[in-house]
Amino acid sequence: MHRRITGLTALLVALPLTAAWAGTYDLTIGKTQTDVTGKPKTVLTINGTVPGPTLHFKEGEEVTINVTNTLDVDTSLHWHGLVLPYRQDGVPGISFDGIEPGETFTYRFPIRQSGTYWFHSHTGFQEQEGMYGSIVIDPKTPENFSYDRDYVVVLSDMHNDSGQTILHNLKKSSDYYNRDQRTVGDFLSDIRQDGLGATLRDRADWGDMRMMPTDIADVSGYTLLINGRNADQNWTGLFKPGERIRLRFINASAMTYFDVRIPGLKMQVVQADGNEVDPVAVDAFRIAVAETYDVIVEPKDKRAYTVFAEAMSRSGYARATLAPRKGMEAAIPPMSPRPQLTMADMGMAHRGMDHDAMGRVMDSDAMAHDGQPGAMQPKAGMDHAAMGHAMPGHDMPDTDKPSDPFYAPGSGLTPKAPNGGKFLSYDDLKAARPLYEDRPSTREIELRLTGNMERYFWSINGVKYSDAKPIRLRYGERVRFKFVNETMMTHPMHLHGMWSILDTGKGRWDPIKHVVSIAPGKTVYTETEVDAPGEWAFHCHLMYHMGTGMFRKIIVEGGPSQQAALRTKENEE
Ligand SMILES: [Cu+2]
Question: What's the CA-to-centroid distance between 299 and ligand 1, angstroms?
């Protein structure tokens, strides 16, 4: 067995669970009215607000959280990214039964980590209705960086339609909310650029896949918020020029990826998903749904700066301000060009490839049998690199790995920072404090990310959650997950209870995450030290992908279950 490098065992033994170390928190789930979307709307609240409060924990303490449900429906709270006994994880149907109307449920667990995290309802569509808050955990040993003040920056999206209505509309027509569909104008400009033949071929290819080339987001119409405020309400954080400010970005959205920048300020990324990374200076970063990034900024001038967070689909933006005093504001920059998914993004260099071949390439039955003569044969003029690196369903030798499997060079989804600035890539992330020693994985599990657009459901290996068997892991093994994204959407995959070590080729220094975002057509590997007995959720964090079936239960068998059992008993008393 490997050993955790952190002194976790020592810590647990050394810490008496006395009152001095035990924090108690009371949270009440309720409702309120808001017009933040421009129309009156009832939202769900935690202690009366959206977002809910920031919970300040200390690494090493044992927390007790009393959650009282004043709604007339069941609810739950899940502690996103926290390593804890599985009965405390807050997922109805897996960790516990949920919290009934009128009930107060008590969570109790030790805090074994530090950094920025968040919490949210794991029941129905309640998260989109406002049920989320932030968690800040003070570290036991000082971090490798310093700052003078810090702010939590919660990004979120709110819709006038209820979750039920949105799902109903998507089931009726998967592009119901896709208002970015290509227009006749685009078509004409494509013809001017590429010629009629290429344009028609491209359109036929997309038609075969029953998706629009702008299927970057499947739900539009969200009002985008920072700390619960829309762009006009302009949440403002104050600073004194020369101070180092830590911004704890949390993407608590149901469906929205954000590209974040602060014109005029470099951002030093110091943590990803609560884990310290070697600092990377960037001008912009993309934050997937449910990820967190901590950045340090140092505004030197006595002026205001705009925190600009535009949706990846460019359907809108959230905006906040950093300023020396209230009421100051800076210009709002124009949005960047809308990313356009191309065939190259899907691992297909369609130029020079004939249409029949495309059709067969995209047919997943054909993909299952290798070596179909003709179908996979590169033709003259085809870009081998683009073809090779991410062909859905095909193993690629490691030597053929592109330098950045996360955002392929030249692809339409590759984010660009304005004015040629630096855009953060997963490749830039290097763990500053590895939690585990590097060792070979014990086995590989392939998870193809799949979907059915005609009936609007999302799945893993073609099977939706309601039809799927749990994935069984053995305590003590190190599993390598191979994610193959066969869809045209980016999926933020979230494993509960255990860390996902993202393979960026850095071995022991690979970044440690709780959400790993997988771009369309890409293959990404993560490894997990299976060190948490019990039953856990594993799913795409996009609400309507999770809700329609891109979800699995993971059962960790064996191992020292005493601790988990003990905690369960304690809580049932
Ligand atoms: Cu998804």
Answer: 36
- Say what the pTM is: 0.83
Residue 547 CA to ligand 1 center (angstroms) comes to 10
Nearest to 11 by CA among 61, 57, 55: 61
Q: Which residues surround ligand 1, an ion (CB under 5 A)?
A: 491, 540, 542, 545
**DSSP code per residue over 54-69:** EEEEETT-EEEEEEEE
- Residues forming a β-bridge with 64: 24, 108
In the three-class reduction of DSSP (H, G, I as helix; E, B as strand; rest coil), residue 465 is classed as helix
Q: Tell me: the pLDDT tens digits for 403-452?
A: 456 665 555 566 778 778 899 999 999 999 999 999 999 999 999 999 98
Q: Which CATH superfamily is domain 143-178+214-339 in?
A: Cupredoxins -  blue copper proteins (2.60.40.420)
CATH code for 340-396+430-573?
2.60.40.420
Q: Are residues 538 and 447 in contact, defined by beta-carbon separation less than 8 angstroms?
A: no
Question: What is the CATH number that goes with domain 24-142?
Answer: 2.60.40.420
> Which CA distances in Å does 221 have to 178, 256, 508?
9, 11, 42
Query: How many CA atoms within 13 Å lie on the side-chain side of 402?
Result: 21
How far apart (Å, rounded) are the C-alpha atoms in residues 253 and 224? 9
Q: How many angstroms is it from 25 CA to the middle of ligand 1? A: 33
In DSSP notation, 362-388 reads H-HHHHHSS--TTTT---TT--HHHHH
